[in-house]
Design a protein that fits this description.
The chain is mostly helical. The chain is 75% helix and 2% strand. The chain has a single domain, classed as Tetratricopeptide repeat domain (Serine Threonine Protein Phosphatase 5, Tetratricopeptide repeat), CATH 1.25.40.10.
Length: 206
């Protein structure tokens, strides 16, 4: 019988990587909860720890977002727009399909006074979120998809905001407020959909 030996450093590396990802997962989960509760400073601390432990960690299944994406939006919500811009650009370089990060990047540019430049990312981020929600709702409509944005609240808000952008008659404070609302609702949607699905399952069992 032939024995296969692996170097000890390989096991150590794999173990450290797993521990880092586990640490990031916990920090991201707690950071998200802090965001939902409006505790932006607390959320920032958790996301900083998550990014330091594993900057490549991806949270979520359907809606996948990296630690840098969370860190960037927390920096934005705490008014640190220069760092938010840099972090969100790095997040998108790693995960270009992170539409929530792209929306926040656009909002960051707008906060920095680069309103015309910001429109591209704001519109693209909203369009990406809209298409993503349509994909989930249409392709998984007989299973979990029926619980995602069931009243089309997020998609209706996106339609209205994008119509304003297309018109060129932009009320910037209103657009930024709408963008922040859309981004936060999108972030909460996986949790709300999961809760609703579990509730329906329990009702059927009863």
């Amino acid at each position: 019988m032939r024995l296969i030996y692996f170097p000890a450093w390989l096991f150590v590396t794999v173990s450290l990587s797993a521990c880092a990802s586990f640490q990031s997962a916990g920090d991201v989960a707690q950071g998200r909860q802090a965001l939902f509760e409006g505790n932006n400073q607390t959320a920032l601390g958790y996301f900083q720890a998550a990014a330091q432990a594993d900057p490549n960690y991806i949270y979520g299944t359907e809606l996948q977002e990296g630690t840098l994406s969370f860190l960037g939006r927390a920096q934005y919500l705490n008014g640190d727009y220069a760092r938010a811009r840099s972090t969100l650009e790095k997040a998108l370089a790693r995960h270009k399909d992170d539409n929530v990060a792209r929306l926040y990047l656009g909002l960051t540019l707008a906060r920095q006074g680069e309103t015309q430049k910001s429109l591209k990312d704001i519109d693209a981020g909203m369009e990406g979120i809209y298409d993503f929600l349509n994909y989930i709702a249409d392709n998984f409509r007989f299973t979990f998809g029926q619980y995602w944005d069931p009243g089309r609240d997020i998609r209706s808000a996106i339609e209205s905001a994008r119509a304003v952008i297309a018109s060129g008659k932009i009320d910037w404070p209103a657009l930024m407020a709408d963008g922040e609302s859309i981004a936060m609702k999108t972030e909460r949607e996986p949790d709300l959909a999961r809760q609703q699905q579990q509730l329906q399952r329990h009702l059927h069992l009863d």
